[in-house]
Structure formats: structure tokens, C-alpha cells
Write a structure and sequence with these properties.
This protein has 154 residues and is an alpha+beta fold. The protein has two domains: 2-51; 55-151, no CATH class. It is built from three helices and eight strands, in the order H-H-E-E-E-E-H-E-E-E-E. The chain has helices spanning 2-22, 35-51, 99-103, and strands at 55-59, 65-70, 76-80, 90-95, 113-117, 123-128, 134-138, 147-151. The strands form two sheets. A four-stranded antiparallel beta sheet has the order 1-2-3-4, with no helix packed on it. A hairpin with a 5-residue loop joins strand 1 and strand 2 (65-70). The longest helix has 21 residues, at 2-22. The radius of gyration is 20 Å and the shape is elongated.
């Protein structure tokens, strides 16, 4: 399935490049775009969305804990698993806010957010690949130490 989506994405991308070379004086979006142009853009966006996963798991230095990222919204959960004790399995919310809607455009698509590990085992850097906004994400068993903080530019 992934190979099919990758092939379809490459075909749509090459068709788009060919059409740009064939029609070099194409108007900017909103200025004379046809229904066909809008459909092509919509299909290309959908193929790209399907190619990127909706969720990703990131390993922490704690062998029982992972971080789950919803790549379209930037929402994060702390995921715990256990071999023997059922009471130690579950998820805890680190961030339940749609960061793309709050700090950027309302355009939610898979692959928009990425998470990067730091040298501190409890901290990760969350990046909005569209706007460039970054947050410090911290996981913890204590609710008052778990959450995200926006990193502002100077």
C-alpha cells in the first residue's frame, strides 16, 4: 500500500512539474485558477497526507515509556507498557491542544509536527514543520511536571 501511495505521489508530482513547464505563465492561486487546478492540488495534498503517518511513537530512555505524537495537531501522550502489572499500562496526556490551530493555520495534515529527542531523558523538542514554531515537551509520572512550553524567538 505504501509503495502504491509513493508511486501515485511521484506520478502526481511529475504531472505537476510537467504542467508547470508546459504552462509557464500560470496565474497565482486565487487569480484565474480553474476547477481542474483546484482538483489537482486537492489530490496532491491527499496523497501527501496518506504518505505521512497520522501517529508516531518515540522511544524515551525509560524502557517502559514512549511518547505518542499526533503528527497533524501536535498533541502528545505518554505511553506506558508493562510485562506483568496491568495497572502500569496506559496513556497520560502531555498536550491535548491542537497547536496548529492555535499557533498557525487551521490546515491540519499528517506529518506537520515532528518530535526530536534531547540529552535530557524527560524532554523533547516539538517542531511545527509548517510555521517553524517549537515547544519543549516534558513527560513525567507527576502531572505537575508533565506538559509543553512554547519556545519563543528573541
Amino acid at each position: 500500500m505504501k509503495r502504491f501511495l509513493l508511486l501515485a505521489s511521484c506520478l502526481l508530482l511529475s504531472f505537476s512539474v510537467y504542467s508547470q513547464n508546459f504552462f509557464p505563465n500560470r496565474p497565482v492561486k486565487g487569480e484565474g485558477w480553474t476547477q481542474k487546478d483546484s482538483l489537482q492540488m486537492h489530490l496532491l495534498n491527499r496523497v501527501n497526507q496518506k504518505a505521512a503517518p497520522g501517529y508516531k511513537l518515540y522511544k524515551t530512555d525509560n524502557m517502559w515509556t514512549f511518547i505518542r505524537l499526533e503528527t497533524a495537531t501536535g498533541r502528545l501522550w505518554q505511553v506506558h507498557y508493562s510485562v506483568g502489572n496491568e495497572n502500569q499500562r496506559g496513556t497520560l496526556s502531555i498536550n491535548d491542544t491542537n497547536l496548529g490551530a492555535v499557533y498557525g493555520s487551521m490546515d491540519n495534515y499528517s506529518g506537520r509536527f515532528e518530535l526530536y529527542k534531547t540529552d535530557n531523558m524527560y524532554n523533547f523538542i516539538l517542531l511545527d514543520t509548517e510555521s517553524g514554531n517549537v515547544w519543549q515537551a516534558q513527560w513525567s509520572y507527576d502531572a505537575d511536571k508533565r506538559g509543553i512550553v512554547k519556545i519563543y524567538e528573541f
